[in-house]
Amino acid sequence: MEFTAKAMFMRVSPQKARLVLDLIKGLRVEQALNTLAFTNKRVAPLVHKLLRSAIENANYMNQEKGVEVDVDRLFVKRAIANEGPRMKRIRPAPMGRAYRYQRRMSHLEIAVAEKPGAVPAAGQATATPAKKAVRKPPAKKAPAKKSPAKKSPAKKSPAKKAPAKKPAKKKK
Hints:
alpha+beta; 3-stranded antiparallel beta sheet; flat
């Protein structure tokens, strides 16, 4: 199941927000929170707060609604920054003119979900140890035989014509 949290009309451009959101996509929730805590961007505390809200939504569903959720197995499934409305502003320019610029806003959305697959409880031991996949070493290639380089025939270009000389004009 997926648990989402949205933050609308955040005063940060979507391009700058995507830089931080791309850092946490696919990470486990604890790892994502640590990454956001040490990210030196202005939008990082907003995303941290939003991620905590998504985790609390999952916790609420677990406690109040009776949905089976293991909060320790949550990971960031989706992190999106969509474009919001733009505020048009005017800046003074030389010679009495004015330049227009836009202050961008974004809508942030984070979705967390449980990792698929059963994980045993902390007190229980697994009956069979996990086997490591054994890889074959890569096959060695035989060295390539070197052959002498072949010369290609030279291409002939058409002969260049010399420009015709114009007769000099007589002076009177």
